Amino acid sequence: MDILYSILIDPFMQMVELPDFFLQVLWEGFVAGVLYALIALGFVLIFKASGVFNFAQGIMVVFAGLTLVGLHEKGVPAYLALILTIGVMGLLALGVERFVMRPLVNQPEIILLMSTIGLTYFLIGFGEFIFGGEPKQMITEELGLPTGSTAFEIGDGGLLILQHIDIAAAVIALIMVGALAVFFNKTRIGRALRAVADDHQAALSVGISLHQIWAIVWFAAGIVALTTGIMWGARSDVSFALEIIALKALPVLILGGFTSIPGAIVGGLIIGIGEKIGEIYWGPLVGGGIESWLAYMIALIFLLFRPQGLFGERIIERV
C-alpha cells in the first residue's frame, strides 16, 4: 500500500500543498516544451520537402550557435556576427542541396537518411576543427536579449520566479512557429513544398524546381537551428552536448506527427511539461533521471497505439 500511495497519491498531494512550486515546475516545462517544438520544426521542414528525417538538425543547432559565438570572439560585433551566421547557414543550405540532395533525387528514403547522418559527422568534425570542443557562452546581452528575473507572489507567501530569457525564448519561439505555419499554408512556396514532399516527379512535371525548393527549406531549417541555438545557449552554454537535447525532437515528432506544425507544438509541450513533472514528483521514487528517458517512453507508447501521431495522417497503401 505504501508503494501505491507514493506513486498514485503522494505526488498529487505535493502539487496541492505547494501550488507555487507546482506552477514553477509547469513554467519550466512549458519553456522547455516550446523550445523542443522549435527544434522539431526544423525536422518538420526537411521532412515535408524530402520525406526523410533530417538527422543533422541537432548538429545544425550547435553549428549555428558556435558560428555566432565564434565570430563574436574574433572581434565581429554581435549583430554583424548574427547576419554573417545567417549567411553561413544559407551557404550550408546551398551546399547541402548541391552536393547531398541533388545527386540523390528519387533515391530510397534510407539513402537520404544516411546522407544526413554523414552530414552530421561532417559538421561535428568541421565544427570542432574551426571552433574547438570547449563549451562557449552565448552572447546574450550583446544581442539585446533580456537577463534577470521577475518574482510574482502566489497565494500566502509563495513565489513564481520567471527568468526574463525564458520569457523571451517562449515569445520568440511562438512567433517563429506562427510565421512558419503561415509560410506553409498561405504562400506559393509553402504549397510547392508540400507538393515536393508528396511526389518528386509529379512536382517536377508541373514546373516546380526541386533544387530551389530544397535550398529554401534547408535555409529555413538553418534559421530555425540558429534561433534554437541562441535560445538554448542563452539558458546554458553552446556546446556539442546540445545535439543530444536536439534529438528530443524525435519523440516530439512521434507524438505530434512528422508533417504537422501544430503537432510539433502540442508534442513539444507534452514532452517538456511531462518530463519536468515526472522528474520532480516521481523521479525520487526511482532515484532520479526520469527527464532523460521519459520522452522516449511516451513516444514508444504512441508508436504502439497511434504510430501516425496526434496530428499525422494515416497512410493506407494497397498491396
Automatic annotation (TrEMBL):
InterPro entries per UniProt: ABC_transp_permease (IPR001851), BCAA_transport_permease (IPR052157)
Localization, UniProt: Cell membrane
Membrane topology reported for the UniProt record: Multi-pass membrane protein
Keyword Transmembrane: yes
Chief subcellular location: membrane
A Pfam family recorded for this sequence: BPD_transp_2
Segments passing through the bilayer: 21-45, 52-72, 78-99, 111-131, 161-184, 213-232, 252-273, 285-305
Keywords for this protein: Amino-acid transport, Cell membrane, Membrane, Transmembrane, Transmembrane helix, Transport
Family listed: Belongs to the binding-protein-dependent transport system permease family. LivHM subfamily.
PANTHER family: ABC TRANSPORTER PERMEASE PROTEIN (PTHR11795:SF451), BRANCHED-CHAIN AMINO ACID TRANSPORT SYSTEM PERMEASE PROTEIN LIVH (PTHR11795)
Listed name of the protein: Branched-chain amino acid ABC transporter permease
Species whose genome carries this gene: Hoeflea algicola
Top-level taxonomy: Bacteria, Pseudomonadati, Pseudomonadota, Alphaproteobacteria, Hyphomicrobiales
